[in-house]
Amino acid sequence: MAKLVRLSRYLLGGIAILLCVPAGALAHEKEFAKFNYCPSKTEGVAHCLYSVTNSGEILLGKKKTKIEAPVTLQGGYSKENSETHISTFTAASGAETLVKTKENVEGGLLGLVPPEHSPPLVVLLSKYFFENEITGVKATLELAKPASEIEVSNYNLLLGSGLALRLPVKVHLENPFLGSSCYIGSSSSPIIWNLTTGVTSPSSPNTPIEGKPGFPETKEEFRIAQINENTLVENNWSAPSASGCGGILSFLVDPVLDLMLGSTTAGHNTAILNNTIDTATATAVNNH
Asked: Rounded to an integer, what distance in angstroms lies between the CA atom of residue 245 and that of residue 178?
């Protein structure tokens, strides 16, 4: 445990070896370019975060969305609380904190997905007919609350137990029929993901799943800590009913979409995020 604590503090604090760039440089270079939008000079920000979810899946009721386009979470966070090991978050400066990335919803609007192990031709035809520009559905994960309500814990992430990332989100569904204002979740009724690298304790019918802390390494002469093959999981979250779907016909479309999704109460949803995480101290970023 003592070694784990030391490793956590190392990843949080980094090693303050400073490197100055030539005068007039407009942005960070090389590996430090990931932190171009970190609010490193904001009071209370001690560390910078750049996390990319490279793959994974989100199961919302009966609807599955595979993460195929990388999703980025970036910003800064405070020193950890000595008792809870939780750090507060600060929004990215000059860019989105949670970058809006559209993902393809399997089966599109009709939800028709070929059986597992179907021939490749069947899969291709299914995508052609049910996931095209008309029948296809795009899902975008967005922040539902200010970035200040995000919580992170490098300690718990490395420990493989407890809260590693608390993320308040909503899901934006887009399709010519659904319109541009169709959401699952909102600022007043967000989806709350309490993500862990440990083992979950979900409500039935879901069963426990396990995340993975990943493998830490250092870059830029120990000034950047990178965690590879990290997996954050959460399968005990709930989601509110759909809203704003179908434009002026939302009073008809919302219930139909809810019926298609099935139950979205706790125990029926899953989030699995496979990530690469980069952190550095605000001091190292400011002096690069």
From this structure: 5
